Amino acid sequence: MNVIKDIGRSFTGNSISKILGYFLAFLIVLTVLSIIFS
User: Fold this and answer.
1) pTM over 0.85
2) Membrane-spanning regions, if any (predicted)?
3) Which of 8, 11, 33, 34 could be bridged to 17 by S-S, CB 3.0 to 4.6 A?
4) In angstroms, what CA-CA distances link 17 with 3, 10, 21, 30, 38?
5) Using the 8-state DSSP alphabet, how is residue 38 labeled?
């Protein structure tokens, strides 16, 4: 998750990049959960 935070910091002030960062984090969490519960 530190990688996503670093990506977010590199795009400070850009709300679109922040939204994409949160969306990527959400997708990663969903993928991990689906692997665990499959």
Assistant:
1) no
2) 19-37
3) 11
4) 14, 9, 6, 20, 31
5) -
